[in-house]
């Protein structure tokens, strides 16, 4: 509900600002809330900001959920799932853009419209989503994927990114930026992989591989060879490689890289240890190699990651230099955080009357 109501506030605010900026006398955006009818045979409007208006929605947003993703065998909110899916397909065929946030991607994928496309959802749902919808390419590192007629957003609070992105499409970039400033939220541009924690597969049932995984959890920052892992599993090396990849979805070297970078993220978040020292502590003697791998797996340099998530903010830039001690707060470390660079000059596009339904 926070996403539905938050999107409503965002669109209403944007409409008010755009009307004032352009001198419009009629609303530029119309927001409706839709829900499956109790009989499950239709979709009904439960709220309409401008009930005298006509036409179909230009965008329908399937919101996130705090519960489990909707099941193909069970109806959402007591309604018939088949009728809802048929209705979504019909709207899409009529030209309506379909969008989802977080677990809403499961319902969107049930329509079959995501087959052969790339989509995102919350990173904790990436594996179950991929298993349930093998025809969809899941890129959970992205917070927002715009495929033209279908737009998917990642984790729960990605509704802010989706809402601002839709403002850019439905109105113009000026409307998007002025709404972002007023609501004090960042314009689109984040990536979900900034926030993603490595969560290895542990439900595969391969005992020897689980034994190695537990061992790596404690010793993964040490110089460990594939031979060491195979010996720990009690398997021949080629057999170990095949079974490890099948069980975890990663090669052993990739798995260890994720563990090491995960440990580095913890150190960047919770200490003011120099970045090169952190790289050394998690097993990388070459600072350049550590930084390159960190950027590849997280989408941020170590310094940018610390500035965004660190409790100490021990680096003022992507280097090794710790910031000077502050003369206040008992000498605690302090650093100024510069906002990320925004987009280019506003693009001016004609504004048309648009309906949006959440």
Automatic annotation (TrEMBL):
Keyword presence, Ribosomal protein: no
UniProt cross-references to Gene3D superfamilies, sorted A to Z: 3.40.50.880, Homeodomain-like
PANTHER family associated with the record: ARAC-FAMILY TRANSCRIPTIONAL REGULATOR, HTH-TYPE TRANSCRIPTIONAL REGULATOR RV1931C
Disordered: annotated span: 316-358
Sequence intervals crossing the membrane: none
Species, as recorded: Pseudochelatococcus lubricantis
SUPFAM superfamilies: Class I glutamine amidotransferase-like (SSF52317), Homeodomain-like (SSF46689)
Database matches in Pfam families: DJ-1_PfpI, HTH_18
Residue span, HTH araC/xylS-type domain: 210-308
Protein's name in the database: Transcriptional regulator GlxA family with amidase domain
Key words of the record: DNA-binding, Transcription, Transcription regulation
């Amino acid at each position: 509900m926070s996403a539905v109501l938050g999107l409503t506030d965002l669109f209403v605010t944007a409409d008010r600002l755009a009307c004032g900026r352009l001198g419009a006398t009629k609303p530029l955006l119309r927001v409706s809330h839709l829900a499956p009818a109790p009989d499950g045979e239709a979709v009904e409007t439960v709220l309409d900001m401008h009930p005298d208006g006509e036409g179909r929605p230009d965008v329908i947003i399937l919101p996130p959920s705090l519960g489990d993703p909707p099941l193909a065998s069970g109806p959402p909110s007591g309604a018939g799932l088949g009728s809802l899916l048929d209705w979504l397909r019909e709207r899409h065929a009529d030209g309506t853009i379909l969008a989802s946030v977080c677990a809403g991607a499961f319902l969107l994928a049930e329509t079959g419209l995501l087959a052969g496309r790339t989509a995102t959802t919350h990173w904790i749902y990436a594996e179950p989503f991929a298993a349930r919808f093998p025809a969809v390419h899941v890129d959970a590192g992205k917070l927002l994927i715009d495929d033209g007629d279908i737009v998917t957003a990642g984790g729960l609070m990605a509704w802010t990114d989706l809402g601002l992105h839709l403002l850019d499409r439905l109105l113009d970039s000026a409307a998007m930026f002025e709404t972002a400033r007023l609501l004090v939220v960042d314009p689109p541009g984040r990536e979900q992989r900034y926030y993603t924690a490595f969560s290895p597969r542990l439900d595969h049932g391969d005992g020897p591989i689980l034994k190695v995984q537990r061992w790596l959890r404690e010793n993964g920052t040490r110089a460990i060879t594939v031979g060491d892992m195979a010996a720990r599993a009690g398997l021949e090396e080629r057999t170990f490689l095949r079974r490890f990849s099948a069980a975890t979805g990663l090669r052993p070297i990739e798995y260890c890289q994720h563990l090491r970078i995960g440990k580095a993220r913890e150190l960047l978040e919770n200490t003011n240890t120099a970045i090169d020292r952190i790289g050394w502590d998690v097993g990388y003697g070459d600072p350049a190699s550590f930084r390159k791998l960190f950027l590849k797996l997280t989408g941020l340099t170590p310094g940018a990651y610390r500035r965004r998530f660190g409790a100490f903010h021990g680096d003022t830039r992507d280097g090794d230099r710790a910031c000077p001690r502050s003369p206040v707060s008992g000498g605690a470390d302090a650093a100024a955080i510069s906002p990320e660079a925004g987009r280019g000059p506003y693009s001016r596009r004609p504004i048309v009357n648009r309906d949006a339904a959440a």
